[in-house]
Amino acid sequence: MIEKSLKLPCGAIIKNRIAKSAMSENMADAGHAPGFKFTNLYSTWARGGAGLVITGNVMLDLNALGEPHNVVIEKDHECLEELHAWAKAGTQNDTHLWMQINHPGKQSPKFLSNTPMAPSAIAYESHMKNMFNKPRALTAQEIGEIVERFAYTSEKAKSAGFTGVQIHGAHGYLVSQFLSPRHNQRTDQWGGSLENRMKFVIDVYQAIRVAVGPNFPIGIKLNSADFQKGGFSEEDSMQVVKTLSELGMDLIEISGGTYEAPKMMEGAKKKDSTVKREAYFLEYCEKVKKLIDTPLLLTGGFRSKEGMEEALATGACEMIGLARSLAIDPDFPNKLISNEDVKSQVRPLTSGIKAVDKIIPIEITWYTEQLHRMGKGKDPVPNASVIMSVLRTVFGIGSAMLRRTRA
Fold this sequence. Notes:
This protein is 37% helix and 12% strand. It is α/β, with parallel strands linked by helices. The chain has a single domain, classed as Aldolase class I (TIM Barrel), CATH 3.20.20.70.
C-alpha cells in the first residue's frame, strides 16, 4: 500500500505514501542562504524514492533564529537563485518538495538572542533555562507582522518551485508556544481559551492560503500533546486538528513533545504496545481520524515495511513519515517500495557518559552530521562515533557563542 499515490484536498497528487519528515539541516552559508550543500542533500533524497520530502525549518526573520546556520527568507533577503536550485534538486524523480516554515519564538539560544520574543514573558523553568534567555511578550502589531512573514515566505517558496509548504506547529516553537497554556498566558484575543490560543495558527494558515492560492498544498506539523503539566493536551490537540481540517488544511503531520519533554525522540523508552506497532503516536491518530477527513502523516518510530503497511491498512494515517532512517540510508524508500527485506538502521545513541547525554542533544547533533556529509557529496556513516560527534558539537557551539549575539 505504500506504493499507492495520494490525492490531497487541494488536488495535488503525491506519488506514494512515504514522506521524508523535516530535520533541521543547520548548514546555510554565512548569509543564511541555502548553498550547494542543500542541492546535494535534496537531490540525494529525491532520488531515494520518497513521494514527499519536507525541508528542515526555514526561518522568517534574520533576528529570530533557532540555530546559527538556519536558512532565512524575508524581504530584501530572498535568496531566489539558491532557492530555485534547491527546489529543482528536490523535485527530481516526480518528488514533492515542501518547505517547512518556522519561527522559534523564545526557543532561540542565548548566543543568538539577548531577548527573544514569545506569546508571554515566561522563562523556561526546566534545564532549558540555561540555554535560553527570558523572552518578552509580542505586541499585537508584532504578531500581525509575523503572520505576514509566514505568508511572504510561503509565496517565495511557491515562486521558487517548491510544491508545498508546511507550518511548523510542534516541538515548542512559536506556533506551539501560542497553543500551550503553559507558555501562552496572554489576556487578549490570542490567549486564555483554546479558541483564542489557536487564533495565531488559524491566522497563519489563512494568510498563507491567500498568498499561495487554493491549489497549492499547505500542511502543518502538530503535537499530539506537549507531555507537560499545564501544557497543550491531547484534547486540545484534537480540537485544533479538527478546526484546521475544516478550514482546508491539506496534510496534518502528527508528532509530540517539545525539547523540554522530547517524546518525539524517545524511541528507547517506548511501551510494549508501541514497540509492537512501532509508531509512537499511532493511538492518537486512530482517535483523531474519527473526527476528520484530512490526510494524516504519522512520524516517529517506524522501522519496518510491515509496521508501515499496518498503520496504513487500519486507516490510522494516509502517509508514513521517516526522518532519521533517511539520514543514514537515503535510499530506504526505494528499498521499501521494491519489497527488499530491509529494516531501518536507526539505533539508540549514547556517548557512554550519562552526564554528557543529559547536556548534549545527541539524537539531533549526530544525525545532523550525517546530513552534512550528504551535503558535501559523501555517504552517511551509520556507525559513526557518538563521542566524536559530541566533541565536534561542543567545539562548534563554543565557536558560535564567540560571534555577535542577536538582539
